[in-house]
Design a protein that fits this description.
The protein has 243 residues and is of the alpha/beta class. The protein has three helices and twelve strands, in the order αααββββββββββββ. Strands 1-3-5-7-9 form a five-stranded parallel beta sheet. Strands 6-8-10 form a three-stranded parallel beta sheet, with no helix packed on it. It has a two-stranded parallel ribbon with strand order 2-4. About 12% of the residues have low confidence.
């Protein structure tokens, strides 16, 4: 039994070393590519290279290192909706955790996260102003104490998702989406062509959701939900080793 434990521990250590090497190589290659792009001004080729490198790395890494990659891309301004961002369509970002704190929201403003698979992802104290999630799969994800304003969830899969929006009655667009089983702390959204949490379908445009379209378990008022109930919840996330 002791030998089995030692063997399992070694395999885990080997896997950690392997993933660290993949992550380190990715950061090195991306930094070199960014420097070459600044010199040659060939943005199109850089974007193709960056997409290929990023998708390849994400397929091989665990959720912790996937989170580090997204943080790197955000800080390098490679996912901005205001610039030509890297196309991450089809990327696997399951179980990632992006978090700030009560004094400082993590800045994901104007970020392009379209057509991405983000099942059981967690966003805690995050500023999502003008962030574009359109076409993404967010099943089972948690948005805890997030700021949603002009956030786009069109064509998203949001079933079993928990959304606790500190933005109040600001504009959030949700269209052609599946909200079956989702839990909301607030009700002020722009919904259209949407499957509501209780399974009913709404094809009209509403600015304020009628409580009658929610089952009691799908509506949370005054912050009564326990954050720990979110499947993907982690109280804090360590920063990535970019250096």
């Amino acid at each position: 039994m002791h030998r089995l434990y030692i063997a399992a521990s070694r395999r885990q250590q080997d896997e950690e070393v392997r993933q660290d090497a993949i992550y380190a190589a990715y950061i090195k290659d991306m930094r070199e590519s960014l420097m070459e792009t600044n010199d040659n001004n060939d943005k199109t080729e850089h974007q193709k290279f960056a997409r290929a490198q990023t998708l390849s790395a994400l397929r091989q890494l665990d959720s912790k290192r996937k989170t580090y990659i997204i943080q790197f891309l955000v800080e390098a301004e490679l996912l901005s909706t205001k610039k030509e961002s890297i196309d991450l369509s089809g990327a696997d970002l399951d179980d990632i955790v992006l978090s700030g704190n009560i004094d400082s929201l993590y800045d994901l403003k104007s970020i392009n996260l379209c057509n991405i698979i983000m099942t059981n992802a967690t966003f805690i104290y995050v500023d999502l102003f003008n962030t574009d999630f359109s076409g993404s799969t967010l099943t089972g994800s948690c948005f805890v104490n997030v700021f949603l304003y002009s956030t786009n969830f069109d064509n998203c899969q949001l079933s079993q998702t928990y959304i606790d929006d500190i933005g109040g009655d600001l504009i959030v667009n949700i269209g052609n989406a599946n909200l079956r089983g989702a839990i909301f702390r607030v009700l002020d959204y722009h919904l259209y062509n949407t499957i509501l949490p209780n399974g009913s379908y709404m094809n009209s445009y509403w600015s304020i959701i009628d409580i009658d379209h929610f089952n009691n378990e799908n509506l949370v008022k005054n912050g009564d939900a326990e954050v720990g109930e979110c499947k993907g919840y982690i109280s804090s996330a360590n920063g990535p080793p970019f250096a």
